Amino acid sequence: MSDQVRGAWPAVLEVLRQHDAGTLFGLPGDDLKLLDAIERADDPPRLVLCRDQRNALFMATGHALQTGAATAAVVGKGPAVTNAATGLLEAQCSHAPVVLIGAGTDPHHIGARAFQELDQVSALAPLTKWAHRVEHADRLVPALRRALLVATQGAPGPVYLEVPDHLLDADVPLRGRGLELTTGIPRPLRAAERPILLVGGGMRHRNADRVVERLAERLGAAIFCTASGRGAVDEDHPHFLGLSGLYAAPATAQLWSTSDCVVSLGSRLEETATLDWPEPIGDAVPVVQLNIAAEEFATDRSGPCVAGDAAATVEGWLAGDLGGRRGEWADLVTATRQELRPRVSGELRIPDLLAEVQQVVPQDRILVQENGLQDMWSYFFPNYSCGPRGGSVVPSEQTSLGFGAAAAAGVKVAAPHRPVLALVGDGAFALFAADLRTLVRERLGVCYLVLRNGGYGWLQQQADQHEPPITGFAFTGDEPLARTPGVHHALVERRADLAPALAEAVRLTAEGTPCVIEVLVALDDSALRPEGDFGTAKPDEELP
């Protein structure tokens, strides 16, 4: 089979074949492209052609209940979908793993009173475990793989997948071989000679006994984490190399390009975590996924998947045969860590602030972060390390502006005896500032490290880098932060003033006084630069 097929239905038939879903029930749309694809296929499924969509869903439900496997049904759009709804209701109440594949309106015609136009996802969502419309050809195969997975795993039940008309003649990629649900130690993990561990947010509160670090030592593996996975592992461990994807240090590129197995622990493999991964990962290089539920698996990369509690599962792996020693790879991992060094300079810069935080604030500190232009310095290891006892809370992939500033208060309520710091830009802080009075009233001693560049630095940088630069609108200005009664406020303009200001904030926040340390920073002190150094040292800069 080639790595691309022409048309959505040949792709659907190939994925169903890979998953041994050999029988279809339904009454397809009047374009009949499904029937054409079946007649042209080398190993087509059996299509039970029905005369009523409701009966097709009833038949599919009976088949799924008898086999225990995912069973597919196909219908057209509009009234065909509403006719099928009664069958979905029965499948839902019967916990039958039925995958309903429906036609859909071309996006160019939505809102134009198109033939049989209906918001089918909204209509069927209450009757399914998952309802999804595929908009792009390259998402069809991963979406169908996920549909088959969600339907069968956990409490079984029906799912709905909509394949709009514009995909019927599109070129559809067939990358990867699909997911393989397994138990025990996955074979690629035992066979790996150059493994990488990727630790996601699902490992938070699951690594008390350091099973991740023990697994890395046993395998000789490199440890990376996602942004939400920070604090789950000891970032001072000699195998830890920072964040993956968008936030990966260039010095780690060789490890990613030569690894023969990536083990994802509690990660959904979101876009920022997998950005710029080498093409073979998830195809020739398997990705082993361990997650609490099948719904959390990423379906656009191939490899074994294990559903279960991460800590207990890894403990089980450690008790078994994990293959031979990988000393040469482990040496490369630790040598790569030695290449990662923070940038230093004589002027006040954000990495200097992060270095002082690590020196002055106790090790059990929790850093709550935003995801703006300059507070992202903390994402780029080794500018900041959580160490063995520190914690980290970051926004989700939605990166809601102001989340970190407000979430820090909730973190302090949950951890009243630990230092809690929020690293935020002044734009995000301004959205939160009215609730500083809440912290005063509740005696929540959070220390806000506010990077003052005059407002929305991210947008200003985009405007400045635009070709030609956008000069008629300004997103930054020289405005000091407003003072709030009951909040200790310090202004830092020199590097020498950082440590005293932090020490005073540690003392006051322990007594329940909120603190704001306003740090003046230049707009070009950014971790994300056009030249692509992404928070790491340039060759001609001074290194410690």
UniProtKB/TrEMBL annotation:
Transmembrane segments: none annotated. Residues 11-122 form the Thiamine pyrophosphate enzyme N-terminal TPP-binding domain. The keyword 4Fe-4S does not apply. Residues 395-519 form the Thiamine pyrophosphate enzyme TPP-binding domain. Keywords: Thiamine pyrophosphate. Pfam families: TPP_enzyme_C, TPP_enzyme_M, TPP_enzyme_N. Signal peptide: none annotated. CDD domains: TPP_enzymes (cd00568), TPP_PYR_POX_like (cd07035). Residues 189-314 form the Thiamine pyrophosphate enzyme central domain. It comes from the Bacteria. Belongs to the TPP enzyme family. PANTHER family: ACETOLACTATE SYNTHASE CATALYTIC SUBUNIT, MITOCHONDRIAL, THIAMINE PYROPHOSPHATE ENZYMES. This is Thiamine pyrophosphate-binding protein. It comes from Saccharopolyspora mangrovi.
